[in-house]
Amino acid sequence: MSLTHRATVVHLKLKKKGVAENHIRAAGRWQSGTNRLTQVYLDSYPAAAAWALADFEDREAFFLRRNEVLPDLDLQRQVFPFVEDALFDKGTQEHEDWKKRCDEAMLEEESDTVRPTHKQNIMPLADKKIDARGPSSMTAFASQKIFLLLLAKLRRVVLQDAAEYQLRFDELKHPVFKGKTVLGTKAFEDFKEYVRASLERQDPPQMEHWPQSATDAFKHLDESTHSSSYALKREIDGLRADSTKHGEGLNEVKQMQKELNQDQKEMKEVVFQLQVQMSQEKKEKQATDQMLR
Questions:
Q1: Where exactly are the structural domains of the chain?
Q2: Contact at 8 Å (CB) between 231 and 72?
Q3: Whether the predicted pLDDT of 190 surpasses 70
Q4: Nearest-angstrom CA–CA distance, 191 and 168
Q5: What are phi and psi of 37, to 5 degrees?
Q6: Which domain of life is it from (predicted)?
Q7: Where are the alpha helices (DSSP H) in 92-180?
């Protein structure tokens, strides 16, 4: 029996799930039809094996409920708090530009890749005394930026995963949830309540019979409005802390929240009308099929 380069249990799990032998061999970097390991990059990603290991039984659309709620940026910055200040001195233009890049990463709005040029002010993270003009230093600096941007992106993942972990396994008191950490702050507790609402929300039963594209579209709309509601609540809470100074801004945000609620009502009305239309089309199709028999 041919085994992958991973543990035997992985190979047996893939076999049990019905993954074809060639996909298992590809996941272990074995060349198809030979007993040699692939020494270069794989020609294609062993997707079937990856799906099976992640316990996906099919290729239907899938999303995480906890990812419907985007943590507040101030809350995210408390995870890996060194990211913004690791490369550039505070007060410099480079530092301000880098903070914007980190915000884009947290919002997943990054538009370009990290491509350092000779015109950039290259300053390696580890040792500022190293000559930073050579190609190797540029490559190292670019790698540092990419790694830090990855940490910025992972901030929301850490918070979302921690929130659901606490909600599902409250009896398990892991040390990481104790002490003075971001996971013990009021901001995180508020965020966790929105995650709870997302996890406990029930989709309408009628959606089970909708085309997958329609279901995905409305789930995306619901996700967007849910995240926007959380962001607006955070803004209102901040303005209420100093209502005298920001009274005008508070009214503006309240108006935005009112408009958002109206949009949600209109979306529900659209969903209802679609349900009625699809139900009518289904009845007509059944009647037509009955006549043709």
A1: 8-53, 73-160, 202-292
A2: yes
A3: yes
A4: 15
A5: -85, 145
A6: Eukaryota
A7: 93-107, 135-168
Contact 273, 279 (CB under 8 A): no
Token representation of residue 109: 């709005």
CB atoms closer than 10 angstroms to residue 15 = 14
56 phi and psi angles, rounded to 5 deg: -85, 125
Give pTM, 2 decimals: 0.54
229: pLDDT confidence band, cut at 50, 70 and 90? Answer: low
Instruction: Print burial letters for 221-252: b (CB count within 10 Å at least 16), e (below 16).
Output: ebbebbbbbbbbebbeeebeeeeeeeeeebee
Token look-up 């009112």 returns 258
Please name the residues in contact with 255: beta carbons below 8 A apart, sequence gap of 6 or more. Answer: none
* Cα distances (Å, whole numbers) of residue 154 to 185, 189, 226: 19, 19, 21
Calculate the alpha carbon distances from 144 to 60, 123, 136, 149, 248 in Å: 36, 10, 12, 9, 43
pLDDT per residue as tens digits for the range 55-100: 776 666 667 888 888 899 999 999 999 999 999 999 999 999 999 9
Cα dihedral 184/190/193/195 (nearest 10): -90
